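Researcher: Structure prediction, please.
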Amino acid sequence: MALRTDAYYRQIAEKAVRDAGIEEPPVPVAAIAERMGVPIFRIAFPHWFTGMLVHEDGMPLVVLNAIKDRAVQDAAVAHLLGHILILLDDASERYPRGDLDSHRAADVVAEELVVPGFMVVEQAAKWFNDYRYLARLFGVSEKRMLEKMQALGLIKLRGILWDY
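Model: Predicted structure follows.
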């Protein structure tokens, strides 16, 4: 596995969002999977199970626990798509088998799929950096949106950066 930066993984996710033609939040992660031809099966499992990737005739499919909350299912789809997108971008990659680094990389991709930086920047300019409104718009917690906006340099730890 080659050493990659988080910026590399965010670019993979941004490309997937743009290729799916998604321009406005919230990002329907299942639509990205559908566009990629990755089927999603929802089946009732025990509560401890969330989701997994299964290979059927060499093609991936996502299996989710239907009894989980929809937000949990969407997060699982984003993470699992992260693994698929990383593999599609670099054929030398492999599906994880207990490899924590590959799960961290998939988490970076998943975060960017759900809260794409380019979209946050566009929406923040429209809505005057109102992270509370943007959180509702993207369907994430206020804390998560605030952290994303801080990471993008839109909001400083003390106060808002107004550049317009």
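Model: The chain has two domains: 6-114, 115-164.
Researcher: Thanks, that helps.
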